[in-house]
Design a protein that fits this description.
This is CbtA family protein. It contains six helices and no strands. By secondary structure, it is an all-alpha fold.
């Protein structure tokens, strides 16, 4: 199997994953976003009422009327574009990494190796960074700190990805010295230690204010479900595609070997 085959199959898996993520985000996540936006608008209207009562000459805001992209477009076409783009990018990257990992992750067959790569990608790229810096809905966080919050998130994400690469290297070395199970434990421990130390070292971000805890929980659960749906489909679809292609190659090779032996 060539790297190109892994890449193409990864792109296909990513496209399917993007569709799945859109369905989950639209059905589970968008209602929470609408609730958060309504809360933000209500707070803004209250503040505007106070300003008007203090200054009768104050003008009326037309931000919603002047919006370039409507909320309906954001929650449908915009959301679909985002999830499909992210799905294809992550799927293609996972396919390439699966090609690199083939034959380098112990004695795992291509399907198992691919599934492991997808699992490591999901944990290091999405789940662990989400646990440290979970998604926040509209009306949460100051616009003045968004650059700093974004930098912290991507900084921790980079540490998590580097940690999983270090964990794989440690696991491979440990397997050569001992055996499979101790090697896996050593790799997992390496990743856990690095990310825990990083999580303690990176500053906390707490700008929730008096935002309703129930709505915040629902929003974060919906965001996590979207991420899990994305990675689950990438992993499952890519594993199935790789396994099918590998079996076809095996069948062709077996026929050639049989023909050569006659």
């Amino acid at each position: 199997m060539s790297t190109r085959t892994f890449l193409v199959q990864g792109l296909v898996a990513g496209l399917l994953a993007g569709i799945a993520a859109f369905v989950v985000a639209y059905t589970v996540g968008e209602p929470q976003v609408d609730r958060a936006i309504a809360l933000e608008e209500a707070a803004g209207a209250t503040a505007a009422d106070h300003e008007h009562s203090d200054d009768p000459a104050a003008g009326h805001s037309h931000d919603d009327e002047d919006a370039v992209v409507t909320r309906a477009t954001q929650s449908t076409l915009g959301l679909a574009t985002g999830t499909l783009a992210i799905g294809v990018v992550l799927g293609g990257l996972t396919g390439l990494l699966a090609a690199v990992g083939l034959g380098r992750l112990g004695g795992l067959r291509p399907a198992a190796s691919t599934a492991l790569v997808a699992l490591l990608g999901a944990v290091s790229f999405s789940v662990v960074p989400f646990l440290k810096y979970p998604a926040t809905p509209p009306a949460v966080g100051s616009g003045e700190t968004i650059d700093n919050r974004t930098a912290l998130y991507f900084g921790f994400l980079a540490v998590s990805v580097l940690a999983v690469l270090a964990a794989v290297a440690v696991a491979r070395a440990a397997v050569r010295l001992w055996s499979g199970v101790p090697g896996v434990v050593a790799g997992a421990a390496t990743y856990a230690v690095i990310v825990v130390v990083a999580a303690l070292a990176f500053p906390k971000v707490d700008e929730l204010g008096d935002f309703p805890a129930g709505l915040l929980w629902d929003f974060r659960v919906a965001s996590l479900l979207t991420l899990l749906a994305l990675w689950a489909v990438i992993g499952a679809a890519l594993t199935v595609l790789v396994d099918r292609t590998w079996r076809q190659h095996d069948a062709v090779r077996a026929r050639r070997e049989l023909a050569a032996s006659l």
